[in-house]
Amino acid sequence: MASIKESLKAVKQQLASAAQQCARNPEDVKLLAVSKTKPVDAILEAADAGQRAFGENYEQEGVAKIQAIKELRPDLKLEWHFIGPVQGNKTRAIATNFDWVHAVDRERIAKRLSDQRPAGMPPINICIQVNISGEASKSGVTPQEVLSLAKAISAYPNLRLRGLMAIPEPEDDPAKQHEPFKAMKALLGQLQENGFDVDTLSMGMSADMVPAIEEGATVVRIGTAIFGARSYSTE
Ligand SMILES: *Cc1c(COP(=O)(O)O)cnc(C)c1O
What is the pLDDT of residue 20? Predict the structure, then answer.
């Protein structure tokens, strides 16, 4: 099996070539290494290979790893993204430990994150999760609800609305993978036309990173392709 360092290098090459294919600057696509279920050692291996932005899905697990790494390597400056669903009783720990929250879909959660962001820290970066495939079981707002939630989030002092996030329904047909990403790009454009200063489209995972980049992703969230398969199901 390839080492984390080798896998990371391969993913970066894939990212760069996908960006170049559609005349985008690879630097405009941030690689978020999704380290959920993976140990601190794996994160440090990626960090030592140059990776700085990491994504976690579970508050307890994520905070424990963030704290452990701060103690082990106080000089290492990593950027932490909370990408899982946010429960109301977890907002304080998330607001205290993370730089970004990707999956906000309710004003109540936004308000708690703003209220609980510790004084002296910069505003926490927020993406609105959109249920772009219209799946009954998925979290995320409908496309029609994006504008009103964006207005609500923008009013909170300790939040900075950065853009939109989606997890489209898995689709094996590469031609069909593009549709939800295209729809997300249009929604971001609509926010910009309405005067919101947003720059982020968080979309694309190991299985659909290339079409996401082709449709305008600015953050891709990659776990398996960097760290290998997860040993227990997390979805
Ligand atoms: C687990 C997860 C990822 C990474 O998925 P891979 O298929 O392992 O790349 C990305 N985004 C979210 C929200 C996740 O939960």
Answer: 97
